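BUG: 3D viewer hangs when loading the predicted structure for this chain

Environment: internal workstation, default settings.
Expected: structure renders.
Actual: progress bar stalls at 90%.

Input used:
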Amino acid sequence: MQTENIQLIINSEKDSQLQNIGNKVIHNERLSFNEGVYLFEKASLPYVGALANWKVFSCKFCSYSKLYAHKEEGWELTIDQMMDIVKSYDGKPVTEVHIVGGVHPKLTLEFFLELMRTIKAHRPELHIKAFTPVELEYMFRKAKVTTEEGFHPDIRTVICADKATADEWLHIHKTAHNLGMHSNATLLYGHIEKYEHRIDHMERLRQLQDETKGFNTFIPLKFRNKDNDMHDVPESTLANDLKMYAISRLYLDNFPHVKAYWPMLGRETAQLTLSYGVNDIDGTIDDTTKIYSMAGSEEQTPVMTTEQLVGLIKQAKRQPIERGTLYNVIQDYSNYEFAENEM
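Structure tokens produced before the viewer hung:
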């Protein structure tokens, strides 16, 4: 979208405050807390979508990753069982092992460190993407070590950080960033929170990113109400989902990426978000746990091939770039022609 076109959209907006916000966006001026809340409360979806699409249009690419997730249905596996899963992908072009489940009453920090050492010894080139700040805080507290001790250089060689209090959560991210590690930030939305809670969350992230520049991407996570204690809370609508992504792009002006998590949203909705400020979607997830379907996700069997993912991105008129976990470019699929045996 050209600047003159977005300016016409801004000028046609009857709300003067929304006009002012739009002009700040196209002049790369930072939005205030109150302006972020005002966008949620007063702006139409087409308006925030146009602003977010203009904001991300300069790159016009969509990155995704090839990652690995295990097939077992059990919630507690031994290291040998997990290594059997890792080894089943030997010789296949996977780039990442994603490990979750750190909040476990039986398993210790030493257990997870040994698991990661074993993975690295078997296949050193695999990137281990492991644990949220919530999981790390639990493991560190259980092991009676501080956050700084938990990120000791001996541990940093085998662990990469991507419910603690908000301050503890941010402190874990900050500690990782100060040690040269990058992480991703999330926000669970669409439950009992108010718009000011969303903006407060993003404001804290924006401030930390100003300080450390350690976040790779921001991932809004849609609340799902299936089979949990908040089943009576209605889920957000598609329009509200898209608005969440668009305002994330506008408010988090120092985050290079905003990611749509397609296994939870569904591939059609994820494709729509590419026109609302998103430039990153998850990749070719080769099967997974039952976490998604149990939570009520749109994708009951979240698997997409590279060809399907590239096609989805091209249909949205974006450039499909396969990336690594740390956003290094692996391959540009813009002009790639798939062979018949790849379909």
